[in-house]
Amino acid sequence: MKGMLNTNWLNMTPVRQKDLALCRLIVFAVCALMICGLLGGCGGGSIGTGAESSFTVSGTVETKDGAAVAGAEVSVSGMQEVVVTDANGLFVFNTSIPADRLLDIQISYSGANGRLMLSDIPNDAAEVTVMFQLNEQQTAIAAQSFEYRRDDGAVIEVPSASPSPTPAAQPGATPEAACVDDCGDGICAEVVCLAVGCPCAENASSCPSDCQAAPPATLPEEPACVDDCGDGICAEVVCLALGCPCAEDADSCPADCGIVYGD
Question: Which CATH architecture has domain 53-156?
Answer without folding.
Answer: Sandwich (2.60)
